[in-house]
């Protein structure tokens, strides 16, 4: 592998709930899922509804599918696609799945109970692929092999969450979603994002909308631009879009964002970025 083999594909960019329909065909209506490819390595960030379409694509690839899945937190919009991720049903496939447990409940148990009677007809243990659950704690640095490390910090969000930095050689991308600015987590996040090539950042609200939603666990595009400046981030992609925001509204917002910084824009479903 070389540092040129680092690509990011967006399969879901909406927050809270999927919003299919004519008003979201440009930016997309699926909930969070991002595919990272470093050479032949597959890394998946979150398992919202976007992971279903990623799964369809992976099923068309030759040979067994092996990958590492990193979950930020287990709110529905970040895991609701996992039971419909077809590669998980196929024998010979294998996945390492990383996430944080809550109180006395392990991360694996949190995922298992989403695929249990009466909510889903196929329990996790009946899936064909090998599933290796890996418990993590914010602050961990995880070596997944082939020179790839994943750095973690805690998010400011109801019930908690994790932000990730994927590092390969001198190239990196940061995934910061479901994060509320202005907390004691801010300095840790700046350090995580320092000098990164790409920052994917929660922009659910605007600064004008935020005061009425303080404590909801989300940030604004204006705060994303501020973090880009503070951390020396090369490129910013705003993410976790408010589900009520139509394509027309998103386009107007993105035009405003680009006017503020030429290396900042809104993420779209299907967008591919090469580092």
Structure description:
- The protein has 275 residues and is an alpha/beta fold.
- It has a single domain, classed as Metallo-beta-lactamase, Chain A (4-Layer Sandwich).
- It is built from six helices and 14 strands.
- The chain has helices at residues 50-59, 76-79, 107-112, 186-193, 221-231, 247-260, and strands at residues 6-12, 33-38, 41-45, 66-70, 94-99, 130-135, 141-145, 148-154, 162-168, 171-176, 198-202, 235-239, 264-266, 272-274.
- A seven-stranded mixed beta sheet has the order 6-5-4-3-2-1-14.
- A hairpin with a 2-residue loop joins β7 and β8.
- It is globular and about 50 Å long.
- The two termini are 14 Å apart.
- The relative contact order is 0.16.
- The model has no long low-confidence stretch (mean pLDDT 93).
Keywords:
275 residues; alpha/beta; Metallo-beta-lactamase, Chain A; 7-stranded mixed beta sheet; 14 strands; 28% strand; globular
Strand numbers in spatial order across the main sheet: 6-5-4-3-2-1-14
pLDDT average, as an integer? 93
Overall geometric form = globular
CATH architecture: 4-Layer Sandwich
Please report which band the strand proportion falls in: under 5%, 5-15%, 15-25%, 25-35%, 35-45% or over 45%. Answer: 25-35%
CATH superfamily: Ribonuclease Z/Hydroxyacylglutathione hydrolase-like
- Judged by helices, strands and strand pairing, the structural class is alpha/beta
CATH topology: Metallo-beta-lactamase, Chain A
Helix content: 10-25%
Any low-confidence stretches, pLDDT <50, length ≥5?
Answer: none
- DSSP summary: helix tally: 6
Rg computed from alpha carbons, rounded to a whole number of angstroms: 18 Å
Largest sheet: 7 strands, mixed
Report the end-to-end length measured between terminal Cα atoms.
14 Å
Query: What is the string of SSEs from the N terminus onward?
Result: EEEHEHEHEEEEEHEHEHEE
